[in-house]
TrEMBL record:
InterPro entries: FAR, FAR_C, FAR_NAD-bd, NAD(P)-bd_dom_sf. The keyword Lipid metabolism applies. Residues 17-318 form the Thioester reductase (TE) domain. Its EC number is 1.2.1.84. One of its GO terms (biological process) is suberin biosynthetic process. The chain crosses the membrane at residues 386-409. GO terms for molecular function: alcohol-forming long-chain fatty acyl-CoA reductase activity; alcohol-forming very long-chain fatty acyl-CoA reductase activity. Catalyzes the reduction of fatty acyl-CoA to fatty alcohols. It catalyses: a long-chain fatty acyl-CoA + 2 NADPH + 2 H(+) = a long-chain primary fatty alcohol + 2 NADP(+) + CoA. This is Fatty acyl-CoA reductase. CDD domains: FAR-N_SDR_e, FAR_C. It comes from Aegilops tauschii subsp. strangulata. PANTHER family: FATTY ACYL-COA REDUCTASE (PTHR11011:SF98), MALE STERILITY PROTEIN 2-RELATED (PTHR11011). Coiled coil: none annotated.
Length: 491
């Protein structure tokens, strides 16, 4: 199968996309429209109160982004707007509700039209409320599957998941219902839903029937992290995404299903242009911390391999997988990863940051260049924690005490350095599991998929997802670190 055949699969097709306001969702919408402007319709489900609000969200949070500049240049502004009017249909809905909360008539019409569903909607925060994460990442997958089974012309359902952080070799295989990462434990999703309602009810009763929103938010966030760790997951995001996969496997019947599990996603490598990203994502948070000199030390091992993949490679692999498995009745899982084919070590990431900031020194508030320093990396968490207490926390508390004695004289300095300290602690809490990650993602299926598309000068490269085609140091130095500085710190 060549690139022309991949593009042809989407001609005159109606595709429903959830998560189009997200990072990968935007890229998928842009890529489909750019390579196949003869797609019939793209229904974009977004959370909104009504149709007008949904349209406004799509215009401002998707189509208004720099990502679509290539298409604006290609079609001209008037042509681009005409294409959008013809092809894009915003839908106000909620993936955490059956049928997105749409009325029966709308659902019936959609089920007659839709050929393909790309389910990318999710809450990706590592420290999300448990009730929110369950509704979006777990139940959302269940409801999208139920909806897909009603569609009479359904060719396939594609679900964007995550590769996770298991130890050992992670196979491209389905998660079994109730399976956990902690030996001897069994996950009951219905019991977790009941637990959430029980805790929320108890909070309402304790507050005389009136919910304390701040207290409930904190309690739900803490519960999510606690339950994730209890079953062996490092955060509520990967935990509830795993639940979503279990529910999909249980509910799908003979529905054609593809699950894409990308590793850590970074900025675009080539397409539609190098270096587009939104927000600070996993390793990007470390780059932002390095930039702001809030990264004096960290915990991990520079020798460790970080499995990362550029976002456009995830999108390309996704579209090729859809074309290859078009209308097949099977169930296939792909790890979109790089570690086995083109490993990225902590040394390479650190060297790229050092080289970039040596060429582009940061400027302090007084206008002077900031000295480029390499962070100290502890291989043992206990030593790292002791170092933080001795070097940062104790002096901070002494400064705080002195400030109180002198009527807040040093409060500004204390608040500034305390924020940096808390930022570092948050980074460690959320990203230490990735710093010590000892797993390896099996890439048998994704390697086989690579052979399905001819990478030649006649257009096959528009669907490049071969990690061997990139040099990590060059990409990080010239593309990714500048992208994080430009885009990542805006969010």
């Amino acid at each position: 199968m060549d690139a022309t055949a991949v593009v042809g699969c989407f001609r005159d097709r109606t595709i429903l996309v959830t998560g189009s306001t997200g990072f990968l969702g935007k890229l998928l919408v842009e890529k489909i429209l750019r390579v196949q402007p003869n797609v019939k319709k793209l229904y974009l489900v977004v959370r909104a109160s009504d149709a007008a609000s949904a349209e406004q969200r799509i215009l401002s949070q998707v189509l208004g982004k720099d990502l679509f500049n290539t298409m604006r240049e290609k079609h001209g502004l008037a042509g681009f707007e005409e294409l959008i009017q013809e092809k894009i249909v915003p839908l106000a809905g909620d993936i955490g509700i059956q049928n997105f909360g749409l009325d029966r008539s709308t659902v019936d019409d959609l089920c007659e039209e839709i050929d393909v569903i790309i389910h990318g909607a999710a809450t990706t925060s590592f420290y999300e409320r448990y009730d929110v994460a369950l509704a979006s990442n777990a139940l959302g997958a269940k409801y999208i599957c139920e909806f897909a089974k009603k569609c009479s012309n359904m060719k396939l359902l594609l679900h964007l998941s995550t590769a996770g952080t298991r130890k050992g070799l992670l196979l491209e295989e389905a998660l079994q219902m109730g399976e956990t990462l902690r030996p001897g434990y069994c996950l009951d999703i219905k019991a977790e839903l009941r637990l959430v309602e029980k805790i929320k009810t108890e909070l309402r009763v304790a507050n005389s029937g009136g919910p304390d929103q701040s207290l409930e938010k904190t309690a739900m966030k803490e519960l999510g992290l606690k339950r994730a760790c209890h079953f062996g997951w490092p955060n509520v995001y990967t935990f509830t995404k795993a639940m979503g996969e279990m529910l999909l496997a249980q509910e799908r019947g003979d529905l054609p299903l593809i699950i894409m599990r990308p590793a850590m996603v970074t900025s675009t490598f080539q397409d539609p242009f190098p270096g587009w990203i939104e927000g600070a994502r996993t390793i990007d948070a470390l780059i932002v911390a390095y930039t702001e000199q809030a990264f004096p030390c960290f915990v991990g091992d520079r020798k460790n391999i970080m499995d990362a993949v550029p976002a456009d490679m995830v999108v390309n692999a996704t579209l090729v997988a859809m074309a290859v498995h078009w209308n097949e009745k099977g169930y296939v899982i792909y790890h979109v990863c790089s570690a086995l084919q083109n490993p990225l070590s902590g040394y390479v990431l650190e060297d790229a940051c050092w080289d970039y900031f040596s060429k582009h020194p940061r400027i302090r508030e007084d206008g002077k260049p900031l000295k480029n320093k390499r962070p100290y990396v502890f291989k043992r968490f206990t030593l790292f924690r002791a170092y933080l207490i001795m070097v940062y926390k104790l002096p901070l508390e002494i400064l705080h005490a002195v400030s109180l004695l002198f009527c807040g004289l040093f409060s500004q300095s204390y608040n500034k350095y305390n924020r940096r300290y808390n930022f570092l602690i948050l980074l460690v809490k959320l990203y230490a599991p990735y710093a010590f990650f000892k797993g390896c993602f099996d890439d048998t299926n994704i390697t086989r998929l690579l052979t399905e598309v001819k990478m030649d000068c006649n257009g096959g490269s528009i669907f490049n997802f071969d990690p061997r085609s990139m040099d990590w140091h060059s990409y990080l130095l010239n593309v990714h670190v500048p992208a994080v500085i430009k885009y990542g710190r805006k969010n």
